Amino acid sequence: MQVLSSAGRFAPPDPGEGRRYTEELRVPDLSVGTYCIPVGGEDTQSPHTEDEVYVVAAGRARLTAESGTVDVGPGSVVFVPAGEEHRFTDITEDLTVLVFFGPAEYTRRDA
Where is the Cupin type-2 domain (predicted)? Predict the structure, then answer.
């Protein structure tokens, strides 16, 4: 067992950065991270080669994807399939999101 004590806690981005991603755990079939975007920050991510599940721990925003748009807030859980273009927009409260990649992030990138 491993306790991920810092997972899901807001950590502001470094100066000049609009977001922060911290990987909390990596095993071959799963990775877990905390994604933080402050009000006024920008989500510039590209589609991933792995499936993702987002669990919003704090904050409010809109998640826009090829398959639709949804408002998210604490407790929201959203699945985004591998390869789908998506990003958080309209961030009205500092956003903290737990991100689960299956398999681990970038595992399929070189496949």
Answer: 35-99
> How many domains does one find in the chain?
1
pLDDT, tens only, 22-51 = 999 999 999 999 999 999 999 999 999 999
Residue 76 lies in a domain: yes
Handedness of CA 6, 8, 11, 14 (dihedral sign): positive
Which domain covers residue 81, as residue numbers?
Answer: 20-102
Q: Rounded CA gap, 14 and 100, in Å?
A: 23
Centre a 10 Å sphere on the Cβ of residue 3 and count the other Cβ atoms it contains: 6
Distance of CA 15 to the CA centre of its chain: 20
The model's confidence at residue 106, banded by pLDDT at 50, 70 and 90, is: confident
DSSP 31-97: EEEEEEE-TT--------SSEEEEEEEEEEEEEEETTEEEEE-TT-EEEE-TT--EEEEEEEEEEEE
- Higher per-residue confidence, 109 vs 37: 37
User: Is 107 a domain residue?
Assistant: no
